[in-house]
Every structure is written in structure tokens, then in C-alpha cells.
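#struct-pred

JT: dropping the chains for the assembly here, can someone run the whole complex?
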Amino acid sequence: MNRILVRTLAAIALLGLGGFFLRGISSSGLNSAPLPDASSGNLSLGKSIYDARCSMCHGTDGKSSGIAASFLNPRPRDLTSGQYKFRSTESGSIPTDEDIERTVREGLHATAMPDWKDFIKGDSLSAVVAYAKSFSPRFQNEQPKPVTIGSMVPATQASIESGKKVFDKLQCYTCHGTDGAGKEAVASDLIDDWGREIAATNLTEPWTFRGGSAPRDIYLRFRTGIDGTPMPSFVGSASDKEMWDLANYVVYIGRKPVWEMTASEVAQHYAGIDAQWKANPVARGKYLVRSLGCGDCHTPYNENGTQMEQFHMAGGLNWTLGPYGKTTSANLTSDKATGLGNYSDDEIKRAMTRGIRRDGTRMIPFPMPWTSYANLSDDDIHAVITYLRTLPPVYNKIPGREPLNFFSYLWGKFKMLILKEDFPGSALPGNAGTTREKSSASLSAGKEAQQ
Amino acid sequence: MKKFLKWAGISLGLLFIVGFFAFLYFIPPFTLAPPEEFINAEKVAAPSTENISDPAKRAIAERGKYLVQTIGCTGCHTPGGDKGPKFDTEFLAGGAKFTDPVYGTSISRNLTPDPTTGLARRSDEQVKRTLRSGVFAENGRVFDPTFMPWADFSNLTEEDRHAIVTYIRTLKPVKHAIPDFKRESEAPYNSFFGADYGIHEGSGK
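RK: done, full complex below.
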């Protein structure tokens, strides 16, 4: 017991010393790592902000377990790992407070991590960072190791040209492609440390660089690596100047975003994208399925609101739709017995765009939004179907529709047509809203099945 | 005579009740209308981009129109009337109510560029942030991805989100103030649009 106490005290003293030491460095410019503030008042303020703003994705336990997490690509950070991607510290090191504060303030571009600078400032910012750090014991046991940044190399023609050579020497093309946009990239199925797929950044689109697109931001990615991903630190394999040259080269190959293009550039750009998608319908289909949100209804939920990932796209949500009885979302995986395995392309297309099931019965336009999907182009429908066929088969038998008995049907229609309520879906004639009827029977069925 | 009147009354009453139920029963469920009828209502409702003078902006807005039509914005953001959603007058003007006995009511927002009640109050960046992260511009509140599926839209490319914003900026402004929604419970909404948790068999593999 005493030993633990002594060790704890020693650790605190060390932390204090380390913080003091680092504070000394910070005054010289780059990094500021203020003393870890563990006062409970600060942590409780941090918790209240975290629970309101961050827990939807990162989860109240910090384990990337929020209800939105499974929809997001990339996944929200698992704060318990203490592993952070965007740092100004050595590869494998914990980040400085300023690194985390910067991420909260500026967000991570083109991801669901927003810039919080309008809403979380000053004391609140340091409190929420302190709370986020408290999820991982690493912050108690380790010190951040800030990198030293050599002098910046101006983006001259010579520097850009030598940057191109560094690009080849470090074999950046393996993942990022010879043009930085994935052309002839060899490594395509990249995964991160958590086993999730991760895409190599398109280096020609600087507005999507998570940690910023200034030369210094890009340089830092080479210098520190992106922990938890296949992107290593190049500190052993390239000199400081080479990394600056490479950063200048990456800035140089950046293209204009569509909002800065002229009319002919926009036309050319869209034609290029369309050709690319057409050549790769699986990628296009994945993009559409994710952003159209097929998984919202076709993946069942756990009781705490997260998705059952082992049942990804295997259907099973059920709705009580006024007089139309009960309906259950379909299994979209390629399972032959219970999924789309035996469906023809035309049958899937007919269900998607005209709301006609395989057996010829009709869907109402809610909850399956086939009236919207009817606007999809033929290429896109083909892409979605091609992608759905690549989903691993999951056996999940979906019960047939349950029509209501005669009297419930009449009562449902009475409520819908005369009382003007209880009509499923707002985008339907005669309806002002939806009413959720939670039947205790199916609730308990769901619970049992989970056990 | 009295007896006859009584029986006539009773049978008339019965006939009325039976007739009423028959009326209810035989009002055709609208799934008898061909699917094209529903599809077209939504298709023609989205305003054309022809009037945009800047050709670059027009091309981007056209892209945005395709996304708005396919991604399902209209389903929740166009209020319903007696004869179906008011696509012609209140396209994307918000106001559709979603009521849940546990979690309370939420009401879809006005997406038209109205300066006092619509999205003209918000910058492009704010609208894109909402599409990407579900953050309300006025208070920084994160809303539930199962009411408004921002978590899905976070998977769009930044350029596609920009196209959506460009397009909805060209809609006809509709003055339509939307009351703040009331949440009865702060617990996460563990389902999607009124579905039960979900039923399944087996272990998933």
C-alpha cells in the first residue's frame, strides 16, 4: 500500500517536473504542454461538456462507442487507447495538450469531427481536453515527446523538384498512387490498428487533409507519422530538409476544389469523376450505400442505441405502420437463404426504385424511401447492387409482413383517415407526422434474441 | 306501425354503421396508385437549376439537386398536407413532425434560403458542418443521428456537400418559422424512425 502511495507521489512529482520542463520548451515556439490539471472541478466541467458534445460519437466511456460511431468513416478516436493521429510529438508518443486542443478547436477536416471553436473555448476547452485525457492511463504514466522542427524550406522550384524525388524514394506511391490521387496504388485494402478499413488520403485534395494543409501541417505528418494507421514517421528514412521538400511537393500537386473552378473545369472534373465511378462500381456503390444511409434501417440496433455490427445490413428492424400492419427491414447481405443472394438485379432494382417486393406486393413510401431512390441514375443503381452483392452473407431470417386483423385494420384506417393521426411517414398523403408505437412484445423479443 | 318504425330505425342505424365500416374498409389503400405517381410528384417538385446565370455554379447546383433528390431530404423536410406533401408550395420548407411517446417531438427545419426563418441565416460552413457533424449552428448542440442522419452524410465528399449547399441556396425562400423541438428524454434514441430495436436470428456469421 505504502509502495503504491510512494510511487503515485513520485509519478505526480515527475509529471510536475516534466510539465515544468516542457513549459520551458513551449516558450521557445512550437509546443505547449501545460501542467496536467487534475483538479476535480475541472474534470467535472470537462465531463459535462464531453457528455453533451462528444459522447454521441466517442461514447460516454471514451471507447468510440457512441450511437453515431458505427456510421462514421473514419471511426471516432478510441480515447482509452491514448493513441492520437494528429500530433506534434514523436511517433508512438502521446500528444501534447495543445495538439488535442487544436483538434477540438479546428476539427479534423472532411470528417465528422467538427471545429468546436465557436462553442468550446478558454477554460471549457482545457477542461474537455483534460477529461478526454483522463480516459487513458498513458497520460498519467508517460510524457509527450515533442519533435523538434527544423527550419522551414521555402517552396521554390528546386525544393518541389527534390520533393518529387523524395516522393519516389519513400515510395509514397505504394498507397497514395503515382499522381497522389491513387493512380496505380498497389496497397489498396489498408486497415488501421483497430482492424478497420482506412483509405490513403488523396494528396491532390488538400481541403480533406485532416490535420490541415499548410506546409507545416503536412511536414508534421511525415515527421510524426499518423499513429494507428499505416502512415509511418519518416524520421529515420528522410532528412528534415527532404521532408520539407516533400511537403512543398504535396502542396504543389494539390488541385482546386470544385468551388474555385471555372465552368469548363467543373465540367471536366465531373466527367472525370463519373468515368472513375463507372469503372469502379463497388467503390461507388459503397459510397452511395454509406451516404444514403441504407444501414440506418437495414442494420439492427443494440438496446443502448449502437448498431449490431455482426448484423451489418442483415435487416430486422420492424415498424408498425398504421393500418398497413407490421413490416420488417430486409436482409441486404448476399446470404442465399435469407438475404439478397437469390435475387436478380432487376428484382433488387424494382424494390429500390418502385417499392415492389419480390413477391409483387407493394411498399408504402415509408420507411423505405423508394420515391427518392427512383431518382438515382441507372449507373448508380447498378453500383449499389454491385456493392450489396459484395457484402458477406449473414443469416438473418426476416419474418413476412404481418397484416392486421380486420378490426385493427379498420381502427387503423379510422385513425388515419378520420382522426388524421397515426399515419406512418410524413411524406405521405394526409399526414402531419409519424407516431411511434413501441410494442412491448417485439421489444422483449428483441431483448431475448440479443442474449 | 310503431314496431315497423322501430325496426326501420334499427336497420337504418345498422346499415349506416356497416356502411361506414365498409367505406373505411374499401377506401383503397394508396398502394393501388402506380409507383410512378409518387415518384413524379417528388421529381417535378425540385426546382430546376436553369436560372442560375453562373455556369460553374449551375453545374455544381445540378449535382446538388441530384443528391438532394436521391439522398432523401424531401422525405422529412417537406411538410405534409391533405393531399400529400406540399411539394409545389413548401418544397424543403420543413415542419414535418416526428413524434415519439418516449423522446418527444422533433420538427424538421426550414431548408429554404429565407432570411428570417431559413438557412439564409447560416453560412455555407455552418450548413456543411451540420451535414457532416450534426452540430446546430445556434447553440452547438449535437442532434441525434437517428432523427437527422448526419452521420450518413458525413460520408459524402466535401465537394458533394458543397454541391448540396449550393443547390438549396437556389430554392425559393419560404417564410416558415419552425418551433424548437422538445425532447422528453436525453437518452439516445435507440432506433430509427419509430422502429423497434430489431429482430434477428443466429449469431451473425
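JT: nice. The beta strands of chain A are 318-320, 326-328, 433-435. Chain A touches chain B through 114 residues (CB under 8 Å).
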